[in-house]
């Protein structure tokens, strides 16, 4: 994997990433580990997470995986504490985990609403709650909340997901104010139509790929590493005076 920029401030940095076993999350884990960070990540996909951690540790990098359902708040906060015991208190948190399962608004039940909000929004707040005390003690930290352009471009069949992702930036703005005087930056990272194995398997045929490219100002497609490289910048000291903002990595989507 090529490294496009090196951020010295990330070397040895304790980082926590949710949903890190596959897709964008795996790219985040790989890119932070390549910078020399001490990466801890969680995911419900145990086999993939263990394999990724073993691969990176075999390269001499530092990656620790804990299989965890991030919708179980108690278990997730315990996992974050375990990662802190191994790597030190997290000074970077990437709230990446999400689930964009399509759904019909007319068939949504209250239980559906609660479960989708839990996987797409709730865990981010409680992860912040878990890491913020250590960041406050250190007098610094970076929190990155992953959003989506889906609500900006009014994608169909995703109303709860889009509601959660719109609220994600509200969370970033709110916590940027709450934590800023402690030296903690909170920003939103907003991917466009990212080409992952899951998207190709479930949603993206040739016609969809052509439609995506036609909607972008830039030719080509957005890949997980493109998103991860923006996360590196937002986590590093290079973005020291940036907080409460959202950064789109979408190829210049026309209506975002």
Tags for this entry?
256 residues, single chain, Rossmann fold, 46% helix, 7 strands, alpha/beta
Description:
Helix content is 46%, strand content 15%. The model has no long low-confidence stretch (mean pLDDT 96). It has one domain: NAD(P)-binding Rossmann-like Domain (Rossmann fold, 3-Layer(aba) Sandwich), CATH 3.40.50.720. It has a seven-stranded parallel sheet with strand order 3-2-1-4-5-6-7, sandwiched between helices. The protein is globular, with a radius of gyration of 17 Å. It has eight helices and seven strands, in the order βαβαβαβαβαβαααβ. Helix 5 links the parallel strand 5 and strand 6. The protein is an alpha/beta fold and 256 residues long.
Task: Write the SSE topology.
Layout: E1 14-18, H1 23-34, E2 38-43, H2 46-58, E3 62-67, H3 73-87, E4 92-95, H4 110-138, E5 141-146, H5 159-179, E6 184-191, H6 197-202, H7 206-215, H8 224-235, E7 246-249
Parallel strand pairs: 1-2, 1-4, 2-3, 4-5, 5-6, 6-7
Query: How is the biggest beta sheet arranged?
Result: 7 strands, parallel
Number of helical stretches of at least 4 residues? 8
According to CATH, the fold-level topology is Rossmann fold
What kind of oligomer do you see? single chain
The CATH level-2 architecture is identified as: 3-Layer(aba) Sandwich
Mean pLDDT reading: 96
Q: Could you spell the SSE succession in H and E letters?
A: EHEHEHEHEHEHHHE
As a percent range, the share of helical residues equals 40-55%
**What Rg is obtained from the alpha carbons, in whole angstroms?**
17 Å
Unreliable stretches covering 5 or more consecutive residues: none
Shape category: globular
CATH class: Alpha Beta
Number of strands: 7
CATH superfamily: NAD(P)-binding Rossmann-like Domain
Note the gap between the termini: 30 Å
- Give the amount of beta strand, in percent: 15-25%
Assign the structural class, choosing from mainly alpha, mainly beta, alpha/beta, alpha+beta, or little secondary structure.
alpha/beta
The largest beta-sheet arranges its strands as 3-2-1-4-5-6-7
């Amino acid at each position: 994997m090529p490294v496009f920029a090196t951020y010295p401030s990330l070397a040895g940095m304790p980082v926590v990433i949710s949903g890190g076993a596959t897709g964008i999350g795996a790219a985040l884990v790989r890119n932070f580990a390549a910078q020399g960070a001490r990466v801890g990540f969680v995911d419900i996909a145990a086999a993939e997470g263990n394999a990724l951690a073993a691969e990176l540790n075999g390269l001499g990098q530092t990656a620790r995986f804990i299989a965890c359902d991030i919708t179980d708040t108690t278990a997730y906060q315990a996992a974050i504490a375990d990662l802190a015991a191994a790597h030190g208190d997290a000074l970077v948190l990437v709230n990446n985990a999400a689930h964009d399962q399509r759904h019909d608004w007319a068939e949504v039940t209250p239980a559906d609403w609660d479960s989708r909000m839990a996987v797409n929004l709730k865990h981010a707040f409680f992860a912040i709650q878990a890491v913020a005390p250590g960041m406050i003690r250190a007098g610094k930290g970076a929190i990155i909340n992953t959003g989506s352009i889906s609500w900006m471009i009014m994608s169909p069949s995703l109303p709860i997901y889009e509601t959660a992702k719109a609220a994600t930036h509200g969370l970033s703005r709110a916590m940027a104010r709450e934590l800023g005087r402690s030296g903690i930056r909170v920003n939103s990272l907003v991917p466009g139509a990212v080409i992952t194995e899951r998207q190709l398997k479930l949603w993206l045929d040739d016609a969809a790929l052509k439609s995506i490219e036609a909607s972008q100002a830039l030719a080509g497609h957005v890949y997980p590493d493109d998103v991860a490289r923006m996360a590196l910048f937002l986590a590093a000291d290079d973005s020291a005076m940036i907080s409460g903002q959202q950064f789109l990595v979408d190829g210049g989507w026309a209506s975002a």
